[in-house]
Specification:
heterodimer; A: mainly alpha; Fumarate Reductase Cytochrome B subunit; 9 helices
């Protein structure tokens, strides 16, 4: 038997940031594609409109990114904890999560990890977001700012290897973000990830001891209930 | 030689004498620096005073060296200033030239444009310095415009609608957008960093700078390595790879310069230039500076020439100079991102019954 518990997983500032970021990145990808391939694409009618939309969306996403960083680092002070994989994640968590996506999911087993407000991301999410939020996004933003101010920041442009190198880097980073976006959206459909990002709350099934997975476990499998943080979060929910 | 001697000469000897006399005349004309027109002999008389700064008022000084390079020098001073008074310089002033006598077509065209009410020919062109547009760089053309149109004001005004306006105004001759022309070509020129600094401003390389690099070879051999007076795209790429201190810049220039200055709405459409493989981008020349201050024009292989400029770190034209290999790498990265949705999604669809059974059990 199982009953459902509600966890407040995504606070409203993060939800607003996420959707501004998501729509901004989609607009940036579409307008960027038109800027690079004007002879085949005319999504935003004229070339100039595409540039203006791209510049505006780029500035909004950059501000939104700064807000995200400020919120997690300064207000909640959970940035490192949320995004940097710990020893357990690297040693076992990554393989466990990978096995889940590649095998257990198809066999109908539950995810070996469940999100809590302080541990929102599974080890694979942590690693991917670490690369995206700490490498891809800052680099694509910085190269974008340089391209937006080629003349005033000319010396910086040359220090980075010249305008051609920056354009190439900006383009390849954008392609990587698009690749991430495809995977991110797909993986969001594997569990209940989209609803918490819309309303903030997640409903989790609270399993009783009788419902534990079979004793002969698949190698590497570690059910949700063994996570001490999850246990603690459930206890807190009950008491509150 | 007396006429009686001429009569005694045989026909063959007469012909030889005529050829000798003609060769002498041509040699003399070359020594004066004129290719045609015998009236130019009078230039020396005029320049003996007007070519010296101390002898004439500042406004009447004519730089002899630069004047000699103009097409007007070939016509001679009197072609334009026909009625020089006999008592010049003490008497009446020399009448001013009327450009319409030779340039009537241009004059009519100019009268229809925006500039006609503002200034006459000499507002932009000094007839004693004027050169063919092919012999001057786009930056020099823009310097003429900036005598009246303040650069900062123009940058701000264009910036109201044109992204990166300062960059556009620096990289394009004003006449590309403000005069109508049927055809355009890419005029390439060699630039070097100011003060040979890595971060120095890029400026047109002077003859002396390039001569120092070329050494005993002609400057053009820096690019046209096989000296066939034709630069292939491969030669451009080799130049970009090997000459670290020099770069090539491209500037879209009208092939026939119109004098009807106007504001053309079609130029506000960015894809007029920012399109790969545009017909306007196919014809190119490289302008190589010569010792006498003019430029030698060497034709470049037709094709997407701007692509060949890829090595220039400070030159990139959006939508036109994209690298095909980068596009392929980008596509490969995006395809990697589709592996999960497509591959996993397919197996997910095949195994959907497993999950339904588990849900049913719980």
């Amino acid at each position: 038997m199982s009953e459902k518990t509600r966890i407040y997983l995504q606070p409203w500032p993060i939800r607003i940031w996420h959707w501004i970021n998501a729509s901004g990145i989609i607009i940036l990808i579409l307008s960027g594609a038109q800027i690079r391939f004007p002879e085949t694409l005319s999504i935003f009618t004229s070339y100039k409109s595409a540039i203006e939309v791209h510049n505006t969306a780029g500035i909004i996403v950059s501000i939104s990114f700064s807000f995200w960083f400020f919120y997690y680092k300064m207000v909640k002070n959970t940035l490192d904890k949320l995004y940097i994989p710990d020893e357990e994640d690297i040693k076992h968590g990554l393989v466990r999560q990978l096995l889940y996506y590649c095998f257990w999911y198809f066999l109908g087993r539950p995810s070996p990890y469940h999100a809590t407000p302080d541990h929102k991301f599974n080890p694979m999410q942590k690693s991917a977001y670490l690369a995206v939020m700490f490498v891809l996004m800052p680099l694509v933003g910085l190269t974008g700012i340089l391209l937006l101010n080629v003349t005033p920041l000319r010396v910086l442009v040359l220090m980075w290897g010249g305008i051609k190198f920056i354009v190439a880097l900006h383009f390849l980073l954008a392609c990587s973000l698009l690749a991430f976006l495809c995977t991110h959206v797909y993986l969001a459909t594997l569990g209940d990830y989209i609803k918490p990002m819309l309303i903030g709350w997640e409903e989790v099934e609270e399993h009783e001891e009788a419902e534990v997975p079979p004793e002969v476990a698949i190698p590497g499998y570690r059910p949700v209930r063994h996570y001490p943080e999850y246990e603690q979060a459930l206890l807190e929910q009950r008491h509150s | 030689m007396k006429p009686a001697d001429l009569q005694k000469m045989s026909l063959l000897a007469k012909l030889a004498f005529c050829a000798w006399a003609l060769a002498g005349l041509i040699a003399q004309a070359s020594a004066w620096g004129f290719s045609y027109g015998d009236q130019t002999g009078n230039n020396q008389a005029c320049l003996s005073c007007h070519g010296k700064t101390g002898d004439v008022p500042k406004g009447s000084f004519i730089d002899p060296q630069r004047f000699t390079q103009t097409a007007h020098a070939n016509l001679g001073c009197e072609a334009c200033h026909a009625t020089v008074p006999a008592n010049h310089p003490d008497g009446a002033k020399v009448p001013k030239a009327d450009c319409r006598e030779c340039h009537s077509g241009i004059s009519e065209e100019y009268a229809k444009g925006l500039h006609a009410a503002k200034t006459a020919c000499n507002g932009c062109h000094n007839p004693h310095l004027v050169q063919n547009p092919k012999d001057v760089s786009g930056q020099e053309i823009n310097m003429i415009c900036s005598n009246c149109h303040n650069s900062l004001e123009m940058t701000a005004k264009h910036g109201e609608w044109l992204p990166q306006s300062e960059l556009h105004l620096r990289m394009l001759p004003c006449i590309t957008c403000h005069t109508g022309a049927k055809d355009y070509y890419i005029s390439m020129y060699i630039v070097k960093s100011k003060g040979d600094s890595r971060f120095g401003k890029q400026e047109v390389a002077e003859y002396a700078d390039l001569k120092a690099i070329a050494g005993s070879r002609p400057i053009v051999s820096l690019i046209d390595t096989n000296r066939d007076n034709y630069v292939s795209l491969e030669e451009l790429r080799v130049f970009n790879r090997t000459q670290k201190a020099l770069h090539l810049y491209g500037m879209m220039t009208p092939s026939t310069v119109s004098h009807k200055f106007e504001i053309l709405d079609s130029r506000r459409n960015c894809s007029f230039c920012h399109t790969s493989g545009s017909g306007l981008m196919q014809t190119s020349f490289i302008a190589v500076p010569e010792a006498d201050g003019t430029f030698l024009r060497v034709p470049v292989e037709k094709g997407a020439v701007l692509d060949a400029l890829y090595a220039a770190p400070d030159f990139y034209m959006m939508g036109s100079t994209k690298n095909a290999k980068l596009n392929q790498i980008g596509l490969a990265i995006i395809c990697c991102g589709l592996i999960m949705p497509v591959g996993h999604g397919f197996v997910r669809f095949l195994t959907r019954k497993n999950r339904k059974q588990k849900e049913h059990q719980s």
